[in-house]
Specification:
6-stranded antiparallel β-sheet; 280 residues
């Protein structure tokens, strides 16, 4: 499967890590996706895609067009269509806020059809892209759509969230939330309210996900892995807590996860992060 992606031009890069196209036939149809520090937009130009929540009380979903997902704090499963033709956006955790006219909490741990958020946008994107557009042209169309949706006046409190969230991003979740609030001159409760409004979760939860992401991308399945060293480098100082969180986020123990990584090595340059793994 081919992955073509890039960081969008300013001012979109303040809110978006990358926009990308996926095309081709997947090596593995179903992927187990742990929490990652991002929100998502998927515009599906291929066959139906299927998703399952790790919470068994939530019914599975089938999307033929596209869907938004806010920040997830638990894992989910995704089944690719065959063949794949998908254009997507990796938003920063706070990145959806200036593009959607709804509380971030309504997208937390949820998938929502694109047309329920951006009315009549899917048909417009499909008409512009058609069946033969190159990845570069497809990304151009999506970037123009994003620019047209970017709010001219940021919502109250978003600047605070962007600034403090950026510190969590660059520190991989290592900066204490109390220190973030003190540096910004606000109370911890005020910071938590603004994060909940613009991200859907508290800054403490965002820090937790950044810490886990740092751990996962540090795993080199081609070499011996010292889990204790990796865990401490990522900020896990309690081995029992690390083991519980790893199993909760991936459904595997670290040893089982490493065995899967070695059994199903990622294609070079794909996926763009090391989190999702084939679901057996």
């Amino acid at each position: 499967m081919e992955y073509v992606g890039r960081v969008p031009a300013p001012p979109l890069d303040r809110f978006i890590d990358d926009i990308y196209c996926l095309t081709g036939v997947p090596r593995h149809r179903r992927m187990n996706v742990p929490p990652m520090p991002s929100a998502h937009l998927y515009v599906n130009l291929g066959g139906p895609a299927r998703l399952w929540d790790s919470d068994p009380s939530v019914p599975p979903a089938v999307f033929t067009d596209g869907w938004f997902m806010g920040v997830w704090t638990r894992r989910f499963l995704y089944e690719y269509p065959t063949p794949v033709r998908l254009v997507g956006v990796h938003f920063k955790p706070w990145g959806l806020s200036p593009f959607v006219d709804m509380p971030a909490s309504e997208l937390h741990n949820r998938w929502v059809p694109v047309d329920a958020v951006w009315r009549r946008s899917i048909d417009r994107i499909r008409n512009q892209v058609g069946d033969t557009a190159s990845p570069a042209e497809t990304l151009r169309v999506l970037e123009e759509e994003l620019l047209s949706r970017l709010a001219e006046a940021p919502s109250r409190g978003l600047g605070l969230v962007v600034h403090t969230g950026g510190r969590l991003e660059t520190s991989h979740g290592a900066v204490p939330v109390g220190a973030l609030a003190d540096a910004a001159g606000v109370s911890g409760n005020h910071l938590a309210r603004q994060f909940t409004s613009h991200v859907g979760v508290t800054p403490k939860r965002v820090a937790r996900i950044y810490r886990f992401a740092r751990l996962i991308v540090s795993v080199d399945a081609l070499r011996p892995v010292d889990w204790s060293d990796l865990a401490q480098a990522a900020g896990y100082f309690d081995r029992a807590h690390f083991s519980r969180e790893f199993k909760d986020f991936t459904s595997h123990t670290p040893t089982e996860y490493l065995a899967l990584r070695r059994r199903f090595p990622a294609e070079r340059g794909f996926p763009p992060d090391a989190g999702p793994i084939p679901a057996e």
